[in-house]
Amino acid sequence: MEILFDPEGELDPDAIYLQVVAPDIVKLPEDLRADILGQYGALTVAMPAAALLSAAKLARGEPRDIEDVAWWIKEQALGLGDIRTAIGLLPDGTQRENAQENIVFVELLAPTKRKPT
C-alpha cells in the first residue's frame, strides 16, 4: 500500500494520503475519537470519523474541501445528518457557523434521493 504525503493536484479517489494541517485552522473537540489506521514504531496513524473530518473541511470551506465532503457522501454513504451532528461538536462557534453555511454547497453537489411529491 502506498501512502501519499500532503499531495497537491488531482488524486485517484481511492488514494490514501496524509495531509499536514497547521494547528488551529479548525479546532476539533478535545475528546476526539479517531480510528487507528496503523502503528509504525512510534508513529500512530489515525483518522477522525468521516463525519467530523467532513465538518472540519466544511468549516475551512475551500473548494477542494467541499468536493471532498461531496465525495464522502456519494462514495462512502455518509449522511448529511451525521455531518450536521458533527458540526455541532466543533468547539468554535464561528467554525460551526461556517460549516453550517457551507453544507448547502455539498447538498448541491451530492443531492440526496428525495421522496416523490
What is the oligomer described by this structure? single chain
Using only CA atoms, what is the Rg? 15 Å
What share of residues is helical? 40-55%
Could you state the order of secondary-structure elements as H and E?
Answer: EEEEHHHH
Average pLDDT: 80
- Outline type: globular
Can you describe this structure?
With 117 residues, the protein is of the alpha+beta class. It has a domain at 49-117. It contains four helices and four strands, in the order ββββαααα. The chain has helices at residues 50-60, 63-76, 80-87, 93-109; strands at 3-5, 16-18, 34-40, 43-48. A two-stranded parallel sheet has the order 1-2. The longest helix is centred in the last third of the chain and has 17 residues, at 93-109. Mean pLDDT is 80; it is low at 113-117.
Chain-wise SSE layout:
Blueprint: E1 3-5, E2 16-18, E3 34-40, E4 43-48, H1 50-60, H2 63-76, H3 80-87, H4 93-109
Parallel strand pairs: 1-2
Antiparallel strand pairs: 3-4
Helix pairs in contact: 1-2, 1-3, 1-4, 2-4
Put the structure in a nutshell:
The protein has 117 residues and is an alpha+beta fold. It contains four helices and four strands, in the order E-E-E-E-H-H-H-H.
